[in-house]
Design brief:
By secondary structure, the protein is an alpha+beta fold. About 35% of the residues lie in helices and about 20% in strands. It has 16 helices and 16 strands. The strands form 3 sheets. Strands 1-5-6-11-10-9-7-8 form an 8-stranded mixed β-sheet. The chain has a 5-stranded mixed β-sheet with strand order 13-12-14-15-16, with helices on both faces. Strand 3 and strand 4 form a beta hairpin. The longest helix has 18 residues. The two termini are about 50 Å apart. The structure holds histidyl-adenosine monophosphate. Histidyl-adenosine monophosphate binds next to strand 6, strand 10, strand 11 and helix 12.
Length: about 425
């Protein structure tokens, strides 16, 4: 026997009916984001490695440890995107989108790749649905995105969530804070993990969200970035909070939240689930403002804010059996005899063309077997066509929920079974 093969670790197949539940979640996102004026962008999965070195930051965990990077056949370094904000910004600059539109609102959905330690809710290929608003400096846009997420969670029925916000300030606020942070941490350097010892010199902010050191007393007692914000950054953060309050959104300020990517300026936010099936992987959405990224990737100065949702984690928190998201057949046509079978086939073709979900039995089974299958797949109606019915150009139509049966002309079948 030939050896069987397995999917790559951390990269999963999504089978029915789980795919139906995931699609229902995705549809809710798309439908809602479009109501806020976001339109879909699709970018390649493969990008030049330099995009993420410059875009995400070469001393972040993602870039240092987690990228799927390889040389193509001409020796150019390529990376399978670990996130999509950098790709959106590349595309925005490449197509000079800002010249045509003062404000650009994009959403995207697709797989991202990070070589991570695999556990429930943490994979090496995972889907994100995200939005990016480019060209908008206003704090009301930050707040609107957070409120939009809260509205999404109402629609998909995920509860027990906490919105956390912080400001990581602008480039002018950061150096003073980093100096104070390093001064605080340096005496305890020996107690930090090997990565954080390096980070102290290269990227001290990352010590605050280190998975090993983040909870140590010395890190917990670190100075708060909020005490180092300029008047302008403070005003922006206060305006975001005021806008959230106006929208009736409760948000907790978490001054220790710094996020794992280097491009953030000003507002950062996360939505955390308190549901217990996610354990440590409880961040359902994360995002923030990145006012300097477009410029640092060679574009014109362009303020921007966005977020990305981790689709698998969100679907894990969404109530409802996956099978309940599957579409049930509107009609099962059970045919007796070759002539009826041939008629059923053309009829099914026409009805499907009319937007009706029709199931048929292709295997050579009798009426009993066909009815059994109709039951199993929860068909709403069953039409039985035998020689007599065929002669009348009609079918016996059974409403499965009501257990009633009527005779219907084949021409009237579509109207009789069409869902409301
Ligand atoms: P991120 O925090 O790296 O941000 O990822 C956003 C979300 O993606 C996380 O909160 C989590 O739900 C999900 N996620 C991340 N890694 C994994 C994984 N290995 N397995 C499953 N889910 C995962 C970003 O990617 C930014 N681009 C967000 C953003 C958009 N900021 C501004 N615009």
């Amino acid at each position: 026997m030939a050896r069987t093969l397995q999917s790559v670790k951390g990269m999963n197949d999504l089978l029915p009916p789980d795919s139906a539940k995931t699609r229902s979640y995705e549809r809710a996102c798309r439908d809602l984001f479009e109501l806020y004026g976001y339109r879909e962008i699709r970018t390649p999965i493969l990008e030049p490695t330099e995009l993420f070195l410059r875009g995400v930051g070469d001393t972040t965990d993602i870039v240092e440890k987690q990228m799927y990077t390889f040389d193509d056949l001409k020796g150019r370094s390529m990376t399978m995107r670990p996130e999509m904000t950098a790709s959106c910004v590349r595309s925005y600059i490449q197509h000079a989108v800002g010249k045509r539109e003062p404000v650009t609102r994009w959403y995207y959905a697709g797989p991202m790749f990070r070589y991570e330690r695999v556990q429930a809710g943490r994979y090496r290929q995972f889907w994100q649905i995200g939005v990016e608003a480019l060209g908008s400096p206003e704090p009301s846009v930050d707040a609107e995105q957070i409120a939009m997420l809260v509205q999404l969670y109402g629609k998909v029925d995920i509860g027990g969530l906490e919105v956390q916000i912080n400001s990581v300030g602008g480039p002018e606020d950061r150096p003073r804070f980093l100096a104070a942070l390093v001064e605080h941490l340096r005496p305890a350097a020996e107690s930090l993990c090997a990565d954080c010892k390096r980070r102290l010199d290269k990227n001290p902010l990352r010590v605050l969200d280190c998975k090993i050191d983040g909870d140590k007393d010395v890190v917990r007692a670190a100075p708060s970035i909020l005490d180092f914000l300029s008047d302008e950054s403070t005003a922006h953060f206060e305006a975001v909070q005021a806008n959230l309050a106006d929208a009736g959104v409760e948000a907790v300020v978490n001054p220790r939240m710094v996020r794992g990517l280097d491009y953030y300026t000003a507002t950062v936010f996360e939505i955390i689930s308190h549901s217990n099936n996610l354990g440590a992987q409880a961040t359902l959405v994360a995002g923030g403002r990145y006012d300097g990224l477009v410029e640092s990737l060679g574009g014109p100065p362009t303020p921007a804010v966005g977020f990305a949702i981790g689709v698998e984690r969100n679907v894990m928190c969404m109530p409802g059996e996956p099978a309940s998201f599957d579409r049930v057949p509107d009609l099962f046509i059970a045919a007796l005899g070759d002539a009826a079978r041939a008629r059923a086939t053309t009829l099914a073709y026409q009805l499907r063309g009319d937007g009706i979900y029709v199931e048929l039995e292709h295997r050579p089974v009798g009426l009993k077997g066909q009815l059994k299958r109709a039951n199993k797949i929860n068909a709403r109606y069953v039409a039985v066509i035998g020689d007599n019915e065929l002669a009348d150009n009609a079918a016996n139509l059974k409403d499965m929920a009501a257990s009633t049966e009527i005779r219907v002309a084949l021409d009237d079948l579509a109207a009789a079974v069409r869902p409301d």
